[in-house]
Amino acid sequence: MGIRFNQVSYDYSSFAQGLYTAIKDINLEITEKNEFIALVGHTGSGKSTLAKHMNALIFPTSGSLEIFGNIITSKRSKKIKYNSIRKKVGLVFQFPEYQLFEETVEKDIMFGPMNFKITRDKAKILAKEALNLVGLNDAYLSRNPYNLSGGEKKRVSIAGILAMDPDILVLDEPTSGLDPAGKRVLMNLFKDINEKTGKTIVIITHDMDLVYQYFNRVLVMNDGKLIYDGLPEQLFKEKDIYKNHLDYPNTIKVLTYLNQQLNLNLDVYQKTNAEALLEIKKAVKL
Amino acid sequence: MKSIIIGQYIPGKGLFYRLDPRTKIVSVLFIMIAVFLLQTIEQLLIALGVALIMLMIGRISIIKVLKGLKPILVLLIFTFIFQILLNREGIMIVNQEMQLTIFTALFLLVSLVIWRILARFIRYQFLLFLAFAASVFLILVYVDFGYSLVDSFSFKIYEQGLRMSVFVVVRLLIIITLSTVLTLTTKPTDLTQGLEKLMHPLKKIGFDSESFALIISISLRYIPTIFDEANKIMLAQASRGADFSEGKLKDKLKQVISLLVPMFIIAFMRSEELANAMESRNFVPGEKRTRIYELVFSYRDVLATAISILILAGAIVLKVI
User: Fold this and answer.
1) A-chain residues within 8 Å CB-CB of B9?
2) ipTM of the complex
3) Which member of B232, B245, B257 has the closest CB to residue A101?
4) CA dist., res. B125 & res. B317, Å (int)
């Protein structure tokens, strides 16, 4: 079960420019339990296209993928209930403006659950729970989603998907546009959901610090191809990840710099600032 | 939605790309009027030939123009069929007896089922539909055994009907081809600048041609953007369980609202951003603006305008005679 990509390619076609291959020959397996996956890559590398395949919003041009037992190919099949796939795999888009439309936050969060035939009263409870989960209090329920700040809109849009209670959660840059504190709150929330409920979570991000600190699997896309699938620790041990338009986490960068400038021999692979500090303290024997 | 080519500019080289937009607008207008003045099929077919030769001279791929016709193909076919069936003037050309018997009905049902099943697997669905339509015709004509359900009726084509249907379709074809050539080879900005210059004399009667041209160019510019956005919103709502191709009519109403509200809000956001961007680049409405590329007439433009005037004059002469 879960999601399995089998030689999936996707072409965008436009009349003026012809075909543009967004992703090419992707083979990938995501299990439905206990995975916390970061999807990284430069802009235009096909991350979002890959994510849209995960809940069958778009169909592969060639190849096939299996989502919870449903085989998705290039043609729409009458046998498959695509809506039920979206209930199982929740996808949060990057820009909350694309989905908020109701006059109150509560109604907007209820939209998802009610599309899946959940009663109004139940949906109300779910909406409240989801909103509290993303760190907003009940006072927000009656507010107009368009009068919120960017970060608050983002949280409401995430709550809108969380309320559907999907088995796998896919988030397209959930922390972009948030302040550092908001980022940490959300990342901790996702980690928490992952640990408590065992739901698999896939997060598209550009933040290497987050990748290094939080995730136990990282997928790297480059020019439409999946070029790395494994532990983040292993990824950052590679010599030259700049060629894939990636960057090292700040801790590694700082410790490497210290090593070079002061001729130290620190272990640069420290995940958090606290660990990095310990390593430095050891070296300078404070 | 990206396959809609009407109104799309495709970069390229060739005679029509080098013409001044004003020339192109005026010439296309003249030739369109001329086409409407033509009265017989023969003249129209010659005009179609001329249009095709023009495409070749301009080195515009006919396939691209044909692809652009695709969205209105249905319209063309319907016009053709209605004209042929409803116009009953002139000599009768075809008079085919038709029967609807039990067996005919049975065969119709079978061919309908075959068509529906095949349509799922075959790529050229439109050709298949045509084949289905042809088979319905053949069945109605040749299957004549069994009990008749209704009185036998006949399928008639009249000379005038055939003429008119060909006439209307060819005329539409020429006009669409002409306008496609215009938009295919002219940048939207050039097109609006051309319009602005052409309407400049109207300023004397209080018509603000510059603002008008700006409105047109902005709306043209934002059509693809809004399509893109609508697409994204649709996907975002689909991932919240509002798939437009599934669900009951009542649910669909709600889904349409969930699409329209964000579209309006985003459009307003965009217009505000655009207004700010224009102001911060010192745009003042009504003020005189200069351009990097001024439009210049060359000998080609004079020639093209002259040819189009000749065509119009010829059409008027034909009409009068």
Assistant:
1) 16
2) 0.86
3) B257
4) 45
